[in-house]
Amino acid sequence: MTARMILEHFAMVGAALALTILLGVPLGVLAYFYERARRPILWLAELLQTVPALALLGMIMVFLGAGKPTVVIGLLLYSLLPVVQNTYVGLSDVDPAIKEVAQGMGMTRLYRLARVEMPIAFPLIFAGIRIAAVTAVGTAVFAAFVGGGGLGSVIYRGIRIANMSMILSGTLVLVAMAIGCDGIMALLERKLRRRFAPR
To answer: b/e string for 163-195 if b means 16 or more Cβ within 10 A?
Structure first.
């Protein structure tokens, strides 16, 4: 196991998470704004997460070939549900009285979304991002099966040659990464909740 493998793992997770936020938050907003779009968007996000991660990566590989782009897109699709769902739920749970006051002040729907509803919903949205990040760290281990590299290569090689120390070292580093990622994001989430808490 090398530092390059760890960095590869982080890079794939980071790229996938950035794309998940860029796609998942707008989809959650769309589900919140338009009732007709709500069910198909949430249903599709739920469906994608029911597909086994390795099978999803395999299907993507058929079209894109082996490599990191396949892994990043697979992680993106697999991580969408918590971000889309938390965005929709967070916006839906904003106090109707607050929405009425903002509307009474003459705010347009988009302005109200950006300046009132999103700031209130953001802690819950961030909780969804946290779940997606931790899930992606673990799921990225399957990158080794589609030519993506990362820590999965160490574990896969250890399984092939029946080397328990190699399997354990890769697994322990992976667990440490997941716990560290979760801890940092939990700290940020608490700070956001305090910042946006009603006063």
So the answer is: eeebbebbeebbeebbeebbeebeeebeebeee
Phi, psi of 66 (to 5 degrees): -75, 150
In sequence order, what are the residues at sequence separation of 6 or more whose Cβ sits closer than 8 angstroms to the Cβ of residue 42?
31, 84, 85, 88
CATH of the domain at 190: 1.10.3720.10
pLDDT of residue 197: 59
Query: Which whole-number Å values give the CA distances from 37 to 25, 42, 89, 124, 156, in the listed order?
Result: 14, 9, 15, 21, 41
Please report how many Cα atoms fall inside a 13 Å half-sphere around the Cα of residue 94, on the Cβ side. Answer: 25
Q: In sequence order, which residues have a C-beta less than 8 Å from that of residue 198 and are 6 or more positions away?
A: none
Total count of domains within the chain: 1
> Which residues form the domain of 159?
3-196
Closest to 44 measured CA to CA, from 80, 9, 4 = 80
**pTM for the whole thing?**
0.88
pLDDT digits (tens, 9 = 90+) for 44-90: 999 998 998 889 999 999 998 888 999 999 999 999 999 999 999 99
CA nearest neighbour of 82 among 7, 138, 143, 133: 133
